[in-house]
Amino acid sequence: MGKILDAFADNELCAAPMAYKGSAKYRKAVDAMFKTAEALETVLGREEKELFEQFCAAQQEESHLYQLDSFSRGFRIAVLMLFEVFAAGKDEFILSKETKE
Fold it and tell me: Which of the chain's termini has less CB crowding within 10 Å, N or C?
């Protein structure tokens, strides 16, 4: 993928990054995630916590890479669709002399 598309997908082109507030469903999921993290904090030992943190980091990296690839493919499909519209070669949006008469 190109540099600009990578930067756009990683939200690095944004001059003033905004925090994602999400829907009520999203906020509920985040709340459940934090409650689960707090519960795990109390029941896991040091070694288990380290192993779980490694798992979470690996899962986040995999998810990020998958999302980046999905975004790139979706963006390319959209460009191809847009190109198809313009490459059709029809002047259906231009008034011809016959239409004016």
Answer: C
Residue type at position 82? L
Burial of residue 75 (CB within 10 Å: 0-12, 13-18, 19+) is: middle
Contact yes or no for 67/1 (Cβ under 8 A): no
Is-contact 40 52, C-beta < 8 A?
A: yes
* Tens-place pLDDT, residues 68-96: 999 899 999 999 988 887 777 666 666 66
What gap in Å lies between CA 68 and CA 75, rounded to an integer?
10
Q: Token pair of 46, please?
A: 């040091």
**Residues of the domain holding 65:** 45-86
Query: For the chain, how many structural domains are there in total?
Result: 1
Q: Quick: pLDDT tens for 56-70.
A: 999 999 999 999 999
